[in-house]
Structure prediction request, 187 residues.
Amino acid sequence: MWGGQPAEALPWFDRVLELAPGHVATRYHRALTLARLGRHAEAVEEFAQVEAAGFRKALVLHMKRAESLEVLGRLTEAEADWTAALAEDRGNPWLLQQRARSRTRAGRMDAAEADLTEALASQVGDAVDPELLHERGVLRLQRGDVTGARADFDAGLQAFRVGDPPSLLDALRRGLQDAASREDGTR
Prediction:
């Protein structure tokens, strides 16, 4: 699987599970392989079996199952798994960002903005992630908070670091332009 050939790995996982049906780590890796192959419904079922068996890496299990659930459009369940992952690693900015994205897709903009705000609250100075600022700025702009969006896009430009993707810089600049356009349209 790790060699980039998940289709070839799957029969080997099946063979191990024939010999040792209770081998949880094999079942977990089989679930990862199914997800990698785009067989997300099967992966979700397999992750549920892994969870029921008491897999000790609950954080990773919840993250991976949430990803598959999102692909399947099962956003409420995905949000629940992101929340469970956050229970394992409270305040993790990346996990908060992932849950915010899931909430945004589900139309829960207030909750998504709250997640991004919480993620940003833990960051200071050079550690501020301009991607989080961009995402919150986009949400704020969608919700009509032009002033808040502009502040986020400005802060994102200030926080932009060497090594951040140039497309993010472009997106922050576009966000500022969109905010300015909306301000001009309301004057």
Notes: The radius of gyration is 20 Å.
